[in-house]
Amino acid sequence: MVDAGGGENITQLPQELPQMMAAAADGLGSIAIDTTQLNMSVTDPTAWATAMNNLGMVPVGLPGQQLVSDSICVPGFDPSLNMMTGITPINPMIPGLGLVPPPPPTEVAVVKEIIHCKSCTLFPQNPNLPPPSTRERPPGCKTVFVGGLPENATEEIIQEVFEQCGDITAIRKSKKNFCHIRFAEEFMVDKAIYLSGYRMRLGSSTDKKDSGRLHVDFAQARDDFYEWECKQRMRAREERHRRKLEEDRLRPPSPPA
């Protein structure tokens, strides 16, 4: 209150001061958080704690107390550092985040077709079955083992089927239903392996002796290994000769006599 002389009546201030401070505190609390600017209810402790966790802060209320228990809060919060510890960093190379291209699609299974020859027909195996297994390829392999031949298959029929893979240098047929075929080049062996798993039927006969399932695999022949060794020795000689020429070229000239 102000008296007639213009001075304040300070005798009533101590009695009104608590009410004024309480009103100011209520007004400050009401404007501290504008609920119209939030997407969730401030009165919902779980939503408020989740929002503060996402911002990297400890979930606390307006007065400063913790809203939820430590089990719900982000574990590993260090109050002294005012930060969270123990959080596994996100790998930026994870596919799907757009930072790296997605992994390439798996290889499409090769669909084999029926092969028609003059004396026989080759039918592919069921694509749902696993592919035929093969042994480890020997160095310089040019020979394949062919098993599962029909009992009535002759050397001429075998020649007719496998000459589509390349030039054949030798065919060694056994009295049983298998043989060995040697090609002129190594890449022709891969074409012969492709025929593994095919069912071979001679003509249009349904006799059991005129049909069989082919099994083509790598064969270790002494001739192939000998030729491979000869090539390796020849390449070694060429490499030594090349190094000698290089050393002679880089050697400084001899001083004059």
TrEMBL record:
Family statement: Belongs to the ENOX family.
The keyword Signal belongs to this UniProt entry's keyword annotation: no
Entry protein name: Ecto-NOX disulfide-thiol exchanger 1
Gene: ENOX1
This protein's GO CC annotations: external side of plasma membrane; extracellular region
Source organism per UniProt: Macaca mulatta
Location(s) in or outside the cell: Cell membrane; Secreted, Extracellular space
Annotated stretches, region: Disordered: 237-257
CDD domains cross-referenced by the UniProt entry: RRM_ENOX (cd12228)
PROSITE patterns in the cross-refs: RRM
GO MF terms held by the record: oxidoreductase activity; RNA binding
Keywords: Biological rhythms, Cell membrane, Coiled coil, Copper, Electron transport, Membrane, NAD, Oxidoreductase, RNA-binding, Secreted, Transport
Matching InterPro entries: ENOX (IPR038876), ENOX_RRM (IPR034140), Nucleotide-bd_a/b_plait_sf (IPR012677), RBD_domain_sf (IPR035979), RRM_dom (IPR000504)
Domain RRM: residue ranges: 142-221
Primary subcellular site in the record, as a coarse category: membrane
